[in-house]
Design goal:
The protein is an alpha/beta fold. The protein has 3 domains: about 25-210, Rossmann fold; about 220-410, 3-Layer(aba) Sandwich (Rossmann fold); about 420-520, GMP Synthetase, Chain A, domain 3. The protein has 14 helices and 18 strands. The chain has helices at about 35-45, 60-65, 105-110, 200-210, 220-235, 245-260, 280-290, 300-305, 315-335, 350-355, 390-400, 405-410, 430-445, 500-515; strands at about 25-30, 50-55, 70, 100, 115-130, 145-155, 160-165, 175-180, 185, 240-245, 265-270, 295-300, 340-345, 380-385, 455-470, 475-485, 495, 515-520. The strands form 3 sheets. Strands 2-1-3-4-9-8-7-5-6 form a 9-stranded mixed β-sheet, with helices on both faces. Strands 12-11-10-13-14 form a 5-stranded parallel β-sheet, sandwiched between helices. Strands 15, 16, 17 and 18 form a 4-stranded mixed β-sheet that branches. The two termini are about 15 Å apart. The relative contact order is 0.11. The structure holds xanthosine-5'-monophosphate. Xanthosine-5'-monophosphate binds near residues 369, 370, 371 and 531.
């Protein structure tokens, strides 16, 4: 996971957006919907370059992007409310096809003469859509289909300049088309999976209406992101990139290596809390395959001495966080004064979680905790090339960059490392014990093809011992818990139904091969109420 708690460049200070050369650009005006970035991603999946822009973007700036089409996102406001976000009225006369979604539809209809009012009842959930006109936007979609609604207001009273393409029982203007201008509106959310034909609606907009050809590829994003980095740092600037071995920071490092070559210095802090062979994997990947200036700082002795005798989870995190900042600051200082930039693997969900969507209005839906984030006073300008992407898009980008599967498909690993998985006192002996168990666990999970179907799998060393029989004698050894979860976003998670036989194999290997462990238990708690880590 990336460090969302560090400073983020405010959207207005970011370098101007440069679309990838030759890309079919679909700017998405972000009115603050929690789904705005999802629209961008669906557009990218469909082969056009969807990118979020501020809702009040000037028509000139929008035209400079040479858009094939424009999408107006949903949003939490009421169109008529004081201060509700609006777009520039001239956008509707650019002649560029537009699709308004939910709030975007209401705004477009209102700005072109319609009336928007509170619906009789707030509508949330599935609704049945009746299609009347399946020519362009709704081409090929079954006449009766299910759509996902989430709105309090809806359009009333449209005059004859609009045609109704589909309705639901409570929403007469569920899909509309303007007769003179290339404006379409949908009251439902085509971008969410609960709308089974939503992707088809978006594809119809792109291919039937905007006449896109579907030329966009992740490699185009890479080119554009590299251009953006070069522009931001100029011809002499040097970037420091904190490498954790996780997919986000690894993709950032590989991208920077491509963009500015030897002007990136990666710093990898070995805090003594890593998994077995983790440091070697990072060294081999980045020294041998990417030829970057990689500095490995072995600070394990300091971290372990900070942790000696500490059992309180919050105190462990606090000490690790402080030490990390000190070590990183010192390593960065040694790189030299021309290193004014710090790269971070901030992803779009991190931007949302910290309430900094493009429009600055996205509700702060998620709470994120990231110990090891860097404080603002380090004095760097941030470089965040992944902040428009979702995790799975980052993995695709990692593949395009040629990162090994082992890194691209890595499960997340927390910043404070094994310290949150050695419950109670953290010392070298207990860490080694856990590393052995963890290695066996992952070997078995990978061998049974379960690594890609689970989202996070790890072992936890508990601070208790239990009785057993070993040969003729009695044993009194440690207990290890296995945690395996399936999750979309790590905010909620379910325990993975690992087959019993696989669990049996893991348990017997750990008990037989790791001296000092006498019992293995499987964690069957979901999140919430349990968290993923034990701490
Ligand atoms: P919890 O335990 O809160 O974890 O359910 C959710 C996800 O966050 C990871 N995690 C962290 N990641 N620094 C990180 O970079 C941290 O301090 C941290 N703590 C938890 C955890 O592994 C899971 O993926």
């Amino acid at each position: 996971m990336s460090h969302a708690s560090a400073t983020q460049t405010p959207p207005q200070d970011r370098p101007p957006f440069q679309p990838p050369r030759g890309a079919e650009v679909i700017p998405i005006l972000d009115f603050g919907s929690q789904y705005a970035q999802l629209i961008a991603r669906r557009v990218r999946e469909a082969g056009a370059f969807g990118i979020l822009v501020a809702p009040d973007i000037e028509p000139g700036a929008l035209q400079a992007m040479e858009p094939r089409g424009i999408i107006l996102s949903g949003g939490p406001s009421s169109v008529g409310a004081h201060g509700a976000p609006r777009c520039h009225p001239d956008l509707f006369s650019l002649g560029v096809p537009m699709l308004g979604i939910c709030y975007g539809m209401q705004l477009g209809c209102q700005m072109m003469g319609g009336r928007v009012e509170a619906a009789e009842a707030r509508e949330y959930g599935r609704a049945k859509l009746r299609i009347r006109d399946a020519r362009d936007l709704l081409h090929g979609i079954p006449a009766d289909t299910s759509v996902w609604m989430s709105h309090g207001d809806q359009v009333h009273d449209l005059d004859e300049t609009f045609e109704v393409l589909a309705s639901t029982s409570t929403c007469p203007y569920a899909v509309v088309r303007h007769r003179e201008r290339p404006f379409y509106g949908v009251q439902f959310h085509p971008e969410v999976t609960h709308t089974p034909h939503g992707v088809d609606v978006l594809r119809n907009f792109l291919y039937e209406i905007c006449l896109c050809r579907g030329t966009w590829r992740m490699s185009d994003f890479l080119e554009a992101a590299c251009d953006r980095v070069r522009e931001q740092v100029g011809t002499t600037g040097r970037i420091i990139c904190g490498l954790s071995g996780g997919v986000d920071s690894s993709v950032v490092a590989a991208l920077l290596a491509k963009a500015i070559g030897e002007r990136v210095t990666c710093i990898f802090v070995d805090n003594g809390l890593l998994r077995k062979n983790e440091r070697e994997l990072v060294e081999v990947t980045f020294r041998d395959h990417f030829d970057v200036d990689l500095r490995v700082v072995d600070a394990s002795a300091q971290f372990l001495s900070d942790l000696a005798g500490i059992t309180d989870p919050q105190e462990k995190r606090r000490r690790i966080g402080h030490r990390f900042v000190d070590v990183f600051r010192e390593a960065a200082r040694e790189v030299g004064p021309e290193a004014r930039f710090l790269a971070q693997g901030t992803l779009y969900p991190d931007v949302i979680e910290s309430g900094q969507g493009h429009a600055g209005r996205s509700a702060n839906i998620k709470l994120h905790h990231n110990v090891g984030g860097l404080p603002e006073d380090l004095g760097f300008e941030l470089v965040e090339p992944l902040r428009d992407l979702f995790k799975d898009e980052v993995r695709k980008l990692g593949e395009v960059l040629g990162l090994p599967d082992q890194i691209v498909w890595r499960h997340p690993f927390p910043g404070p490392g094994l310290a949150v998985r050695v419950i109670g006192e953290v010392n070298p002996h207990r860490l080694d014990l856990l590393r052995e168990c963890d290695e066996i666990l992952l070997e078995e999970i990978i061998a049974h093809n379960l690594y890609r179907s689970t989202d996070q799998v790890f072992a936890v060393l508990l601070p208790i011992r239990s009785v057993g029989v070993m040969g003729d004698g009695r044993s009194y050894d440690s207990v290890v818990a296995i945690r395996a979860v399936e999750t979309q976003d790590f905010m909620t998670a379910d325990w993975a139904r690992i087959p019993y036989d696989v669990l049996a194999g893991i348990s017997s290997r750990i008990i037989n091969e790791v001296r000092g462990v006498g019992r293995v238990v499987y964690d069957i708690s979901s999140k919430p109420p349990a968290t993923i880590e034990w701490e």
